[in-house]
Design goal:
alpha/beta; five-stranded parallel sheet; FAD/NAD(P)-binding domain; globular; homodimer; 569 residues
């Protein structure tokens, strides 16, 4: 008898798994079940529909050739049966059936399966705050919410938006309202930074500068206490620090896996409810598979169970599950968590662990911060890219890479080059030698990614003793209390302005004059050396060391990093 | 006693090795030797100086902060002695000296070394053609030639340029003259295609379309016989097929390693003269190192000695040599040959083997050709990217990736993602699961690179029986002689025009109607199935197979590939 494959959830992973299964095994009987009539859509496109960049909401549900991927499409093109408006209410593992309920009629029935695929995804987390029921408060995770949000702004009755949560969806929604509709937005984030766990604190500051330069106000380390309304509609958001006017509130305080059915059925789940799966994406019941936002797969950097709620994961995992339920054998070994986001003038992207996450995971980690042009420095069209590499002391293992740059494609070209290596125990030496495409219009001969590996290697070998730009800013602000000698290793003309502004506090000794003027350098004080980007200050540090002066630190990324962090110097 | 390190050649690898050595070992005595006064410049920038995009030639020799990297710079900033206008004439391995000659005075002397670094690079190959001595014929590999070429066009006396050679330098020079100066250019290439060994024949056609759309005429499979002059100056280039007017000729027919000294000294060299080195970049004499354009390093795809004359190689290898001559231990395991080039509206890039190169190397290889948008298909700003993946039958090993796209950064983001894998025995399954950055403004949820892996896997498993777009064009042109049934699996509205134009020759059966109309499909003929991109034709092929019709082939990349190849259908 042909296998009966039942898939619960038909947004991203579900349709992919169903179609792949049918292609490999045309005789299988595959049924997709979803509580909505809207299936197989690109949820990641919602901010771009709300912004107006995507014109019709249906575009998110269409093929590139404008065929709507609805139930009829799956039946005729893919041979997959789809039960829409159908909610699964129980998994009966012993008899291999699921119980379903018709959303409109309430009629209950059972659907038998040989293989079951759980693709229920995740839902927006809605913290239990007073006023959450007011009109004008919505998440942004499904098409109905997308239509609501766009209709609200299009109607012209929204003069200020508050976004609760400074993660991917929150920031993309903030950009959508501010950039395309010109509506001022406030983002309230509970953590001390936006994109926590994805960008280092320093890089997140650069992202905030981009947002705040484009009418998005960012409040981090701030807790929403309640929503206040007028006539049943939201009017204000009250936080622990202020009250913000808002005619529209987007809830983007994270997502939670829709794992209630799996838990009730006794499947093994992780601490936060994600369904645990093996490399074949099988749950603790060998007849049941799970993936996408619902499931936990191995974090290839930490080796622990990870969670990567991203549309690309759902698609790739859907194919693996489709192969396996069709009787094949495909694996999904895990992930390192590559991600990207377009803001206003900048894009940010990364993979693996940030320095903060690495240290929290127990790694003795260092971070290398660098600014470098994304093309040959003589090529006229170019941007300054900021990249950070996270590596482990002792093993020299690379743990993560993150960055921010005006040219998102160029940034992603570097992140993609490293992502695979993060999951395979690669070392900073591999980054130094990494063979990225070189041609002056698109890269440097010693590209920023190779240079990052070089600097990491120098730090891990103890040759380069670094000072983070953030720490430099702190030391400099405390210069009157401290006892630090600030040595500017740039050419005189570059250092001049600072020397004039801070006489006796800022000292100019160009790198090539260090040996000749070694007598001017105090031997009894900590010395901070800096230049424009960190190369000459490293050479100056080596020059000082050659004369026995070793209590020195070289500012990573130099003045260019300090200034981009917003240091007032 | 401090080590004496002597470096012959001061363009790319030499200065890098010298500076790195001094940083690691300040007490070493490092001497850089070059026959020119112009050292440490970005030779890859020459086309952009000739075009005018780079304003002053000195910019190619400057740091990003506009300090000229001349002999004085290396002395004061790096502690490296530089002997300019000094030509090395012999390596005396027994006594560990080199013989040098002052280019101006002819004075001869010897320079002792403990470690010697050979960084002489390569020179333009100049085929011994009649008329080569005429004024107005120049290579484009050093700054003097760059200045000559720019002065010629700036003077307004050049109305037509001929470039001999359709490799990287040749095409970049062609673009420089045509794009920025508006001068028509003819490129004459001996091989049957431009960028042989870097692009497949099919992709090279797309590159030619871009060139020919911008006043660069491309003549492939054509041999230059002689140059004819008037008054001592070149006036015409005579090939085996035509005579082309030219007031300026750029010789870009490849480069040859400057290995005469190494050969004379008895060092081991490869067939074409490249110096053989081990992973530490040591030659057959353990006191002599070599790298850059001069040396052969392992091709990590074939496992054989390879040659990668690229500025990025020289820089990365220079650092490795610098570490090793300073007493450290660094390795350069080899390369896969990542490359990129910006043309007019398109850029091309790749890594590893093309399908032709793979077959020549004895691999039983397949090629997957694909066109896909470089962003989520609903995102408004996007380009169609064409990528090819080369993989080995039997092992499923990935051997190469090449592509062409209007957005060079986005293309390189995919090439960089794969390059490392090519050198590490990775499989098409790794490409299917490859974790590239996903966000709608910069990638698809099922990104083109993953889709390529998926299609390769389907072909290697025998599920998808492919027909290259080139072969399709051939079959279609021979349709009256042949006995092939052409089945258009697109929706009726897309197929209509072709059916009307070619009644009885072009058959429309949309993929979702195959089962119902299976009787219309002939069982006794080879069937070619096609759609827009190749997905529905694959599904149609599976649908036909389910009804016992297996003599079918699905056109890879579909109509979009066929049209981009210039097929007249």
């Amino acid at each position: 008898m042909a296998e009966r494959v039942v898939v619960i959830g038909a947004v991203a992973l579900g349709p992919k798994a169903a179609a792949r299964c049918k292609r490999l095994c045309p005789e299988a009987h595959v049924t997709l079940i979803d509580q909505s009539t809207r299936i197989s859509y690109g949820g990641c496109g919602i901010p771009f529909y709300v912004s107006g960049e995507v014109n019709r909401v249906d575009e998110l549900q269409e093929t590139p050739y404008h065929t709507l991927r609805d139930a009829a499409f799956f039946k005729t093109h893919k041979g997959v049966d789809v039960l829409v408006r159908t909610r699964a209410t129980a998994i009966n593992r012993a008899e291999r059936t699921i119980t379903v309920e018709n959303v409109d009629t309430g009629a209950v029935s059972t659907v038998p399966y040989d293989k079951l695929v759980l693709a229920m995804g995740s839902s927006a987390f809605k913290p239990p705050l007073p006023g959450l029921e007011l009109a004008g408060i919505s998440a942004a995770t499904n098409l109905e919410e997308a239509e609501f949000l766009r209709a609200e702004v299009a109607a012209g009755r929204v003069n200020h938006v508050v976004v609760v949560g400074g993660g991917f969806i929150g920031l993309e929604m903030a950009v959508a309202f501010a950039d395309m509709w010109g509506i001022p937005v406030s983002v309230v984030e509970l953590a001390d930074q936006i994109l926590p766990n994805f960008l280092s604190d320093g890089l997140s500051h650069m992202a905030v500068q981009d947002l705040q330069g484009h009418s998005v106000q960012v409040y981090t380390g701030e807790k929403v206490l309640r929503f206040e309304g007028e006539g049943g509609r939201v009017a204000r958001v009250v936080t622990d620090k202020r009250t913000i006017e808002a005619e529209l509130v987007v809830m983007a305080a994270g997502v939670r896996p829709n794992s209630e059915l799996a838990v009730a059925a006794g499947l093994a789940v992780a601490e936060r409810g994600q369904v645990l799966v093996d490399e074949q994406l099988r749950t603790s019941d060998p007849n049941i598979y799970a993936g996408g936002d619902l499931a936990s797969v191995k974090n290839l950097v930490t080796g622990k169970p990870g969670w990567f709620p991203l549309g690309s994961m759902a698609n790739r995992q859907g194919r693996v599950i489709g192969t396996n339920v069709a009787g094949g054998s495909a694996t999904f070994p895990g992930a390192v968590g590559s991600w990207g986001i377009k803001l206003f003038d900048y894009a940010a992207a990364g993979a693996g662990l940030t320095i903060e996450a690495a240290r929290r995971e127990g790694f003795d980690a260092i971070k290398v911060h660098m600014n470098q042009l994304d093309r040959a420095h003589f090529y006229p069209e170019r941007d300054l890219m900021t990249l950070e590499l996270v590596a482990e002391r002792g093993t020299n293992r690379v743990l993560g890479v993150q960055g921010i740059s005006p040219n998102g494609d160029a940034l992603i070209a570097r992140i993609n080059a490293v992502a695979y290596l993060l999951g395979h125990g690669c070392l900073v030496e591999d980054i130094s030698n990494l063979e990225v495409v070189y041609t002056p219009p698109f890269a440097s001969a010693m590209d920023i990614i190779n240079a990052l590996g070089n600097v990491a290697e120098n730090i891990l070998a103890g040759r380069l003793v670094p000072l983070e730009a953030e720490e430099f800013a702190t030391l400099w602000q405390a210069r009157l209390q401290g006892d630090v000698y600030f040595l500017d290793a740039r050419a005189h003309k570059d250092a001049e302005a600072m020397v004039e502004k801070y006489p006796g506090e800022w000292h100019s000794i160009p790198q090539d004059e260090i040996a000749a003027r070694i007598g001017e350098v105090p031997k009894d004080k900590p010395i901070v050396v800096l230049c424009n980007t960190g190369l000459r200050s490293y050479e100056a540090q080596l020059g000082l060391a050659a004369h026995g002066i070793t209590n020195t630190r070289s500012v990573l990324g130099g003045m260019s990093s300090a200034k981009r962090l917003g240091s007032k110097i």
